[in-house]
Specification:
Elements (H helix, E strand, L loop, with lengths): L1 H25 L8 H49 L13 H14 L2 H14 L9 H19 L2
Length: 156
């Protein structure tokens, strides 16, 4: 019964708007007892119903788009939180250059350029370039000291 009351109120409002629209179009009050005027009133009411239906559809589409965007944003945030926590990687283990390259690419996509540079440096080290943070001159010194220490240990 509530829906029919709501529909009747809505229909009454539509008829009132249609009467107003017809009278504004004609520029004079209308006698809606005349069949021609009644047909014109019904056409105006149908046009108003169509406009209201289109408005509801646009609002529904906008609401669905907002909800979809909110779900996507929440999903992106959840993925960003899980991807910012790197998996435990033992740097002492033989992590291949592919692992460092994948980690660097993921960090770069997230916009964490400092971390991406660090991972790319570790990948380069796997290929024989100096370790991150060590200048080429320091690497030679480390190599000489390390070689001297190895020789000292091997001598009796």
């Amino acid at each position: 019964a509530e829906q029919s009351d709501g529909e009747e109120e809505n229909n009454a409002e539509i008829i009132r708007l249609a009467k107003q629209r017809v009278e504004e179009a004609r520029g004079e009050p209308c006698d809606f007892d005349d069949l021609e005027d009644l047909e014109e009133l019904e056409e105006a009411a149908e046009a108003i119903r169509r406009e209201l239906r289109e408005q509801r559809q646009r609002r529904r589409a906008a609401r669905e788009a907002w909800q979809r965007e909110a779900r996507l944003q929440a999903k992106r945030e959840a993925e960003a939180q899980t991807s910012t926590k790197p998996e435990a990687v033992d740097e002492e283990s033989e992590a291949g250059p592919q692992l460092w390259k994948q980690l660097a690419a993921a960090a770069f996509v997230r916009g964490d350029y400092y971390l991406a540079q660090l991972y790319y440096s570790k990948e380069a080290h796997c290929h024989g370039l100096p370790p991150p943070g060590v200048a080429p001159a320091e690497e030679e010194e480390i190599g000489v000291v390390g070689h001297a220490a190895a020789e000292a240990e091997s001598s009796p």
